[in-house]
Every structure is written in C-alpha cells, then in structure tokens.
Amino acid sequence: MTMTSYALSSSSFCRNSRIPAISSSSLSRIPHLNVSNKLTLSPPQFLNAGVRLRGLSVPGKFPSVRALRVKCEKEDTIKGETEDEAERFARRESTMPDRFRHLTKEAPDTPVRWPWFIALAFLVYAWRAVLFELSNWRNAVFAIVRFLGDLSKFALALVFHFIGDPITSLIALVETAIYSVRAFYSGIVAYTPVRELTTVILLASSVLAIGEAVAPNSISKQPYVVTLAGLVGYAAVQGYISEPFFWTVLVGMYGYSRLVKKRDDVTSALPSAAVLAGVGEPWVRVVGIAGYLALAMYHNSTKKSSSEEEEGQIVRKAPPVPLLAAALAIGVRLAAKWAGYRHLTWMIV
C-alpha cells in the first residue's frame, strides 16, 4: 500500500491534533525521532500527514514539528473565534460532545402521590357539605310547594262555599253536553237509516220545489221557520215530543207566517207541508203532498201581476238546514261504512 492512500491535509491535521511546543529535551524522549531531525511515524495517520505535507519543506523530507506548530497557530488564529462561537451555539454553552449529551439528562423523579390523598379527603368533605346544603334547599322548596298547595285548596274551598252549586251544575251541564254530542255522533255513524233519509229528502224536496215554483223565494224568506219545522219533525220521530204537540206546533207555524208575517198561503203552509211529507205516515204523506199541490195550483191561478212584481225580488238562496243535515248524516254513515270495510280488508290481507 502506497503512502498516498493515507493522505491527510495540513488543515485537517491541525484541527484534529493539537501539537504542543516540543523542546529538544523532549525530542530525545520520543522514540520515533532520530538524531538527524527526521520524523519517523509508525502509525498510519502520521505517515499520511507526512506525505501530504512534503510541500512545506524540501521535497522528499518531512517538515519539522516547529514549522507545523507555527502553521497550525496561524490557522487557529484566523478560524478560532468563528469555530468557538459555532461550537458554543451548537453545544448550548456546553463542552460535552453531542453523542454524550443524552447521558446528562436528569432521570425523572418518582411521582409523589400522597398529597392526592389529602386533597381527596378535603374533596369528600366538601362534597358531603354540598349534599347536605342541597338537601336543606330541597326540603325548603318542598315546604314552599306544600304551603302553596294548601293555600290553593283553602281558596278553592272558600270559593265553593259560596258559589259551589252553580259551578258544579255548570260542570255537569258541560259534561252532559259533551257526552250527548258524542252519543249523537256515534248514533249517526252506526245507525243512520240511509234509505229512510233518502226518502225524506226526496219528498221534502218535492214539496219545497212546488212552493218555490208558485211563490219564488218562499224558502229564503223564512229560513228559521223551516229549520224549526225540521227540528220538530226529528223530535217527533225520535219520540221526544207527543203527536198532539207536534200537530199544534205545525199549526202554530202556519198561523205565525200567515197572521204575523202577512205571507201568502203557499209560503205559510210550506214548512208544515214539507215536515208532513218527510216524517209522516204513508197516508199522511200522500194527503199532505196532494193538499199542498192543490193549494199551490189555486194560488197560482188567482195571484195578480202586482204580487208577481213584489215576489220578483232577488234574495240569497240556500238549501234548507234540515235537508242539509240529513244529507250530511247520510254522507257520514256511508264514509264510516266504507272506512270500516277498508280497515277490515287491510286486516285480512
């Protein structure tokens, strides 16, 4: 192996080795220096340095130690301050190499846990105090609520002491009305006679049509009387009123329209004839329709032109309330029946 393979520059040699001042007395103690001032280096790194530094002296000869020391001091003078600052910055004001710094880290201390037990004791005591205070507040709130409840009971008893009977009667009346409406609706849904109501609507409509043809606006002039006649007919069918009272009411309605309101015979007899045609016995229906038809024909043959002009006034026309209620009952019954069939079909499928 040649000497050039172990080449080492003078600068790297000065960085990696600090050469102290060597006196002549010390040279005699170094075994690698002979008397002819030639440096014989046995280790490879010193041989490399000698080969690379042969330009500093005579070719083929090694420089003296003093010359090498002078050159290193010059280089250190130029780069000393910069390298020292860089090393201090890198080492953070520490002279220990980086590869040994992890050894200087302080070992973590064993965590101290006994103060936590003291804090836990204080926390438990504080929590028990909080619970005790909350229980006191809860008892106070319950006491206030009980007091307000007793006070409201006393006020209600005082009110009922003076006006208790009217309030009780009113509550009973409202309850009875609610249950009556519910029972009435249930009866309509479950027991509405569709065929009979259809017959009633047809016969009453025929009588009303005869009256409107002979005396225009005879229904619109007396809507309340027509509605009362329908209610009386329903009460008679349900048995709420007796038959003599029923006939008396019909005669009274005719007299009210003829004598008080000064209406003609056809208009006055229209509500009574429509009720008889709708809810009467078969022979009563025939007699009622026939008699009213004859009265209408007689009135049409004897009425004057002046009366025709008076009757020609435009009045808002609306279907009679009894017929509208009967049609609504039929519709509710059919809708409930259809919904029941649909529900059963869904359950079966």
From TrEMBL:
The chain crosses the membrane at residues 114-134, 140-163, 170-191, 197-215, 282-300. It comes from the Eukaryota. InterPro entries: AtTam38. Keywords: Membrane, Transmembrane, Transmembrane helix. The keyword Transmembrane applies. The keyword DNA repair does not apply. This is Embryo defective 1923. It comes from Brassica campestris (Field mustard).
